[in-house]
């Protein structure tokens, strides 16, 4: 009782607690440990230990090698998932700084496993990002992010992408055919920047610049209302100057 009121205790699941203690015991041995030793160190009965070891091995959190138990792939993925969420949060924070400094919505995207992936975008209500009214993955030809990524691909990868996602006009300003797109991509490679004005969404202009993140095609992009189109080139040059110091290291950690 506290101040005359009953104290509520959280409901604890004993089997989960025992499994966690067992995982901690395994983690104390880089070369693994046998069941009897793990039972002793975790303070568990041997039959219970065997049951938990079988379950954890079946689920991929442990694996048995030469009579000892070590962490399995699923156990490693827990830490990796948490680390990636942290990196994505850091990247989002960095993008937010970039967006505020250049006065535009900002994006980071990669081309991974044959698809355009927008990894992060700013969420500033004063500078809202483009609404994804048609899937970004299927319309790479129509937006600056996609054009910048496609320009970085080798010829075969680009052909494969366009075979899966043919060029189609989304607005009166979109490229009309694959030949027009390929000419545009040649210009993007030469200038190391992609510009598009209302090709994906009416009322919005965008630009994207390539960044070096190992072997992956990646880009940092910005968008502005079409009424601010006269600022696009100036803002893009500011973005280019900021990117290397602010985003490249974080972008690399996300893309691999």
UniProtKB/TrEMBL annotation:
One GO term (biological process): glycerol metabolic process
IclR-ED domain location: 74-256
GO MF annotation list: DNA binding; DNA-binding transcription factor activity
Origin superkingdom: Bacteria
Pfam family, one: IclR_C
Annotated ranges, domain HTH iclR-type: 13-73
This protein's record includes keyword DNA-binding: yes
Classification via SMART domains: HTH_ICLR (SM00346)
Keywords: Activator, DNA-binding, Glycerol metabolism, Transcription, Transcription regulation
Keyword Transcription regulation carried by entry: yes
Free-text function comment from the UniProt entry: May be an activator protein for the gylABX operon.
Name of the featured protein: Glycerol operon regulatory protein
Species per Swiss-Prot/TrEMBL record: Streptomyces paromomycinus (Streptomyces rimosus subsp. paromomycinus)
Organism lineage: Bacteria, Bacillati, Actinomycetota, Actinomycetes, Kitasatosporales
């Amino acid at each position: 009782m506290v101040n005359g009121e009953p104290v509520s205790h959280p409901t604890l699941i004993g089997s989960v607690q025992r499994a966690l203690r067992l995982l901690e015991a395994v983690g104390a041995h880089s070369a693994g440990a046998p069941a009897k030793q793990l039972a002793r160190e975790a303070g568990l009965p041997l039959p219970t230990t065997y049951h938990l070891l079988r379950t954890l091995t079946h689920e991929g959190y442990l694996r048995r090698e030469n009579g000892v138990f070590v962490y399995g792939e699923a156990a490693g993925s827990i830490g990796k998932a948490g680390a990636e969420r942290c990196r994505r949060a850091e990247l989002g924070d960095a993008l937010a700084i970039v967006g505020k400094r250049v006065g535009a919505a900002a994006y980071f995207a990669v081309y991974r496993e044959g698809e355009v992936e927008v990894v992060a975008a700013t969420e500033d209500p004063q500078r809202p990002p483009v609404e994804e009214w048609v899937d970004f993955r299927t319309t790479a030809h129509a937006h600056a992010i996609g054009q910048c990524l496609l320009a970085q691909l080798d010829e075969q990868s680009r052909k494969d992408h366009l075979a899966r996602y043919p060029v189609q006009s989304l607005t009166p300003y979109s490229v009309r055919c694959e030949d027009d797109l390929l000419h545009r991509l040649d210009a993007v490679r030469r200038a190391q920047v992609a510009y598009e004005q209302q090709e994906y969404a009416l009322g919005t202009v965008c630009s994207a610049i390539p960044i070096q993140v190992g072997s992956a095609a990646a880009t940092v992009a910005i968008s502005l209302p079409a009424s601010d189109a006269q600022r696009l080139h100036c803002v893009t040059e500011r973005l280019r100057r900021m990117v290397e110091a602010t985003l490249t290291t974080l972008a690399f950690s996300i893309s691999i």
